[in-house]
Design a protein that fits this description.
217 residues, alpha+beta, NADH Oxidase, 7 helices, BluB, EC 1.13.11.79
Length: 217
């Protein structure tokens, strides 16, 4: 019996150029329309995130959709508390700029996704984690990036809110004890589009040439 060969896709120059555009236009979005997100598009983005690589094929990411207004209010309260403390830690000139920045879209974004790492998963049988257990969480970050790029390709914006208390958010969402919060994402249709990152545009931090260097040893 002759089996059909696997069709290997060809990625041509035009695709690579478009892929470059996707990476360049992926933005950390904080300003959202309140319009509902297309559910089929959201589901497709999550399905694509599930194609991400993971240590030992453990697939430790756990996406939680936060729909409860009470729980969303608790997350917002945690942000506001942390944001005051974070701003106070800067010297005066930097503090004033910090306070002018919009650092979240928690009020406007129609979709909130909390992304956890299941650190008790048996999947993968521990392969690749004995010396670097943090690879579980790194695998979750890879899935988040996959989701982010897929969302951009579907016209959605994503904002990663990290000015939060992980323990508070975990308790609010009533998830298993072994789950550790990696990201809290706001998802929706962007109000505006910019090629340059918002923090660069508003004078906080430009792109660093140091990050581009390829060291050889």
């Amino acid at each position: 019996m002759c089996l059909d060969p696997v069709r290997v896709p060809t990625f041509d120059d035009r695709f690579r150029e478009t892929l470059g555009d996707l990476f360049a236009w992926r933005r950390d979005v904080r300003r959202f329309h309140r319009d509902a997100v297309d559910e089929a598009a959201l589901r497709t983005c999550l399905d694509l995130a599930n194609l991400s690589p993971s240590v030992g094929n453990s697939q430790p990411w756990r996406f939680v959709r936060v729909s409860s207004q009470e729980r969303r209010a608790g997350v917002l309260a945690s942000f506001e508390h942390c944001n005051v403390s974070a701003g106070a830690a800067y010297p005066d000139s930097r503090r004033d700029l910090y306070r002018r920045l919009k650092l979240e879209g928690l009020r406007e974004a129609p979709v909130h996704l909390a992304v956890f790492c299941d650190e008790a998963t048996d999947a993968g049988h521990g392969l690749g984690r004995a010396t670097m257990p943090e690879m579980l969480r790194f695998s979750v970050v890879g899935a988040i990036q996959s989701f982010w790029l897929a969302a951009r390709a579907h016209g959605l914006g994503v904002g990663w809110v990290s000015i939060l208390e992980p323990g508070v958010v975990t308790e609010l969402l009533d998830v298993p004890e072994a789950w550790r919060l990696v990201a809290y994402l706001c998802v929706g249709y962007p109000v505006e589009e910019h090629l340059d990152p918002e923090l660069e545009r508003h004078g906080w931090q430009g792109r660093s040439d140091d990050a581009k260097r390829l060291l050889e040893r």
